[in-house]
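Review box. Two proteins, two foldings.
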Amino acid sequence: MTAPRSLSFGSQAAAYERGRPSYPPEAIDWLLPPGARDVLDLGAGTGKLTTRLVERGLNVVAVDPITEMLDVLRSALPDTPALLGTAEEIPLPDNSVDAVLVAQAWHWVDPARAIPEVARVLRPGGRLGLVWNTRDERLGWVKDLGAIIGPEHDPFSQSVPLPEPFTDVQRHQVEWTNYLTPQAVVDLVASRSYCITSPAEVRTQTLARVRELLATHPALANSTGVALPYVTVCIRATLAG
């Protein structure tokens, strides 16, 4: 979880919080094991998933490698422990959580190092849950957005090898809609790692094209609210024990 692009989000932490979607309850229900109480949100970012877990009354610890992201999380969830760390070096003791959830971040990790670390902090029979929000580009304007910023495709959300000691790997997806303002769509794009790390001129041009789409597309023009459809892809595996 320490690749250069994975550490680029700090400069756009506020935009990340404004533009990125949360996660649908059905996906979280499916990811969590029955009776879970202690949960690690690994790669928690600004706390998009953390907030949903705290709302359920769970004992949540958030871990992320970027200070600026955790600062946003702490301001919203001051009573939730928020620790600097990575999937390869998790700052928790052995056998300390019932579930480790990783939202929008597993593609940044080194699985050879992360799998043993996740297994270490999980209790026997605990669960590793991975989740990605991907834009549903079957609708016209969302497909047009993809033409500007690159189509939504995350191979990690389609097939993720989770080797021993994990078993019973399963996949599930949830279709839902996120409602946001036109400016939040701009923030969504601005918070993507490829946009953050682009040369300033390219970044400016990309955001200008997004604003033009929002202002001129028949489904969006003069609208104060935007419905952005998502497919949330979930993968879960159980720690043998």
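Next protein.
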Amino acid sequence: MNNLLISKMQRPCVSYMTNIPDALAIKVEQVTDLPHALQHLGLQESRPTLVIVGGASGLTQEYYTCLQRLFEEKIVPLAEKFQAYVVDGGTDAGVMQLMGKARSNLGGTFPLIGVAAIGTLILPDIENTFADAAPLEPNHTHFVLVPGNNWGDESPWIADVATALANGAPSVTVLINGGGITLRDASNSMRVDRPLIVVAGSGRTADRIVAALRGEVSDEQVIQVAKFEKLTAVELEDDFHSIGEAIAHKLSSK
């Protein structure tokens, strides 16, 4: 398909040119519209669902290089094995960029869905005065564009889109590195009762959550995430075996 399809619920679909020629997108205004919107994108089948949250612009080169291996050696092969839906923030930075590049490099066929607040994006022919606006990651297959003008406005939507996609199938959120918004992402996974895997040793928010498990952090929001009964902390090993094992277990169990 040569166009990015943006449609508002209860309005006719309109085509919109983009520099991502093979992606489909839909704009939604209300959470209750999600099942119909996803069906409109051809994503109506219930599947295991993997949510990726974490570092964007704050990833150092050292972490980026290490995490590139993690995505290519474990995360993307597992998504392909389970033919899972993969959901992230959809912009061309950090873990979202790593996910898109790894899927492309390995010839992945699983759906990769970016969920992004429309006011934070650089889109063709749409003027945006948001100073930190970002482009969409070009290797994603689908986008759900949601209301919002600030980073983090997409956070509850990521959780709700993943729930609608899984539709009863197993799902898990993997938290890697990250800043303040990543804590919000973790809280939203807790809200929908989605298991949360925190990659210890990946830096910043992930490591703060793990430190809270040891009683070494006083930040109440971090402590609340650490108390989540469905949280699993997994070390960033050189062979990534434990991370892969934890993800596979969650995607294959009810």
